[in-house]
């Protein structure tokens, strides 16, 4: 018999129950809708719900399972989608009053692939304005809470997506990551995620990119196997480079003088011990990047993207948040030559970090430099006794967007009831290497799967 309520099962467990006839997609959907009703008022993770569309999809999936004609390993599995992605016929606001009444005309490619695989789309999850912040709060819907401590942030910009998964609203969510927006909130809420190499998950229809090719679409789940099955559907296959024997792992504990919470370091060191017990070689190395330089490069590119996003809206200055207004003004004033020089610097960075990561099989870091902070704050004010800047949490994440490298985050040891995350990074298009290692660590260091509100 299936143990626990249906909403508490991961996608693989649900499919096993469908196959065995213990559950069907209709009763699973109703369990998830009831869970949303019970937990979303406190968390504000789901901002648009589509019960009618979800019920129609669940009924079609149940009929397929009865006749042995399931479409995929995720047929009938409920899933949410971040509100900066297009789900045809549903509102897509991008967390902004500029797009408050926008209805997506069609599915983006990963969403269409999930529908074709029989996935049941529940609705849309909260994100900061233009999905461009490390916290989840916006003028349309307000803030999202962390299921482990609802008066704290889940981080951002996929804060609604990770909160939905961690709270049991759905076993899998689809989000995006331009500077850590999948990985940092996953670490803050005790769930798993993967940011694939740019190009691995295709996209075509949706909002215009704000940050060159930095942003990728990726899954969030409560188990590594669910990440693997979702990536197999939304992503294109790539050659796998097998690594025989134990892995050569390089561990980055600190980034220059940037502050990091000592409790985060303690959790990271415990995870390194697990990697060593698994037989891998672990060497602690200095970060070959400067957080201030990475932040400046990201800011330049994204400010031009923000300027592009607000262009054409009369009175946009009064409709957006002060932070977005400041970024748009900076982007509008930036000379084109400076933008091109920034792209040149990023190209050099990609080459140098590509050479660096080729000297190891995997690089590991904390997922974020800080623990979750109060819900209505944009970030911590002080970290380890030092003043924290606006991107203090992001010193381990944004660099790998600029470098176009894949990364997985899985939970590491919780600190005082608050989750922390372990980030695994590999050479381009070696996502399967990361998933294999993450699965081994998951078995050696199992985590609590749900925040039981």
In short:
38% of the residues lie in helices and 16% in strands. It is built from 14 helices and 15 strands. It has helices at 11-20, 25-43, 51-66, 109-116, 159-167, 183-189, 224-234, 262-277, 291-310, 316-319, 322-333, 336-357, 398-402, 431-444; strands at residues 46-49, 78-82, 120-125, 137-138, 142-143, 172-177, 192-195, 216-221, 248-252, 281-285, 362-366, 382-383, 386-387, 407-415, 418-425.
Largest sheet: 11 strands, mixed
Q: Identify the overall geometry.
A: globular
Total strand segments: 15
Given as residue ranges, the uncertain stretches (5+ residues, pLDDT < 50) are none
What share of residues are in beta strands? 15-25%
Number of helices: 14
Strand order of the largest sheet: 1-3-2-6-8-7-14-15-11-9-10
Order of helices and strands: HHEHEHEEEHEHEEHEHEHHHHEEEHEEH
- State mean pLDDT (0 to 100 scale): 96
Task: Give the fraction of residues assigned to helices.
Answer: 25-40%
Q: Structural class of the secondary elements? A: alpha/beta
| C-alpha Rg (nearest Å) | 21 Å
Q: Termini separation (Å)?
A: 24 Å
What do you see in this structure?
This protein has 453 residues and is of the alpha/beta class. It has 14 helices and 15 strands. It has helices at residues 11-20, 25-43, 51-66, 109-116, 159-167, 183-189, 224-234, 262-277, 291-310, 316-319, 322-333, 336-357, 398-402, 431-444; strands at residues 46-49, 78-82, 120-125, 137-138, 142-143, 172-177, 192-195, 216-221, 248-252, 281-285, 362-366, 382-383, 386-387, 407-415, 418-425. The strands form three sheets. The protein has an eleven-stranded mixed β-sheet with strand order 1-3-2-6-8-7-14-15-11-9-10, sandwiched between helices. Strand 9 (248-252), helix 8 and strand 10 form a beta-alpha-beta unit. Helix 2 crosses helix 5 (159-167). The longest helix has 22 residues, at 336-357. The chain is globular, with a radius of gyration of 21 Å. The mean pLDDT is 96.
